[in-house]
Amino acid sequence: MVVVVGGVPLEEPLPDSTTLIHLHPGFRETASHFIAIPSKIVGPVGLLYVQQREMAVTVPHDKNVSIIGTDDVTTCTVVVLRHTGSGAVCLAHLDCSVAEEAVANMVSRVQELAMGYQDGRIQLHFIGGYSDQHNFTEELFYNLLHFFHKQPVEFDLVSLTLGELNTTVRNGIHWPIIYGVGVDVKTGDIFPATFPDKGPESALRTARYLTGGHTGPQLLDVYDCGLGLLRIGPFNYHPMRCVDLWLAQTDEFILQHLSTSPEVEPPHFVMNMRATLKYIQEHPFPAVTVFRDNRPHYYRRDEISGTWTPFRY
Fold first, then answer.
1. How many helices (H) and strands (E) does the chain have?
2. Structure pTM?
3. What would the pLDDT profile of 151-170 be if each residue is shown by its tens digit?
4. Which CATH topology does 3-311 take?
């Protein structure tokens, strides 16, 4: 099948983002409108936070989740899929390691939740990523567009807020404008957002991609909307050599060597990296020390506080 823009299928060879924007100037207008929306600070109540190399899928009548979101996006891209008939929505935070299998899994999960709805199409949104000096965003976008184009279903590409459309210049340096995205699962509204609370076990989840290797799915599905449970693991990651030496380095060293975009990272980047490195130091083999029974860590929404609490399933 194909990716469709304004009712017209994209032809192969697929264009890069600059060409696509030139051919379909409506993307510039929708991006400008999106960027103009004031960014919301979203608290933990009703939030399902998705980290890098994670995805989550749910439906409008989910009583446990009202917003799916992610932030700290620089050279990564957020993909939102939404089925217009059922309202089933998927949000994924993707980097250049993404594979076609991960995209196929996203599509499959949305189709599962939309089963039984005769009407409706799958809308596709790309948000985040900017005109970085290494072209990471452009490479990622092209790969994603190619992967979606190969799926056995049509997608309506509705918005494209990345690359040049998500870039501003300060003192000669390119910066992303949008760092975070939220989706209202009941209405499907997408909006710029930041999330001070990153959800349970943030350091463990960050360690999974920081170490550069892991077992299990490349894109981790962190939510079971049928059970209303946030699900982490089980997985293992490669031991990180010389983690003690990493922790002894200066903040500037960590920023320069652990980021794909050190000039534009948010202020808390180094603090989060140090917390993750400390976690890796304490748990070099999470399959042994974290997931001792080879079972996921489950969390359910507490009815009183509205936040995620551990749950033995």
1. 9, 19
2. 0.95
3. 999 999 999 999 999 999 99
4. 60s Ribosomal Protein L30; Chain: A; (3.30.1330)
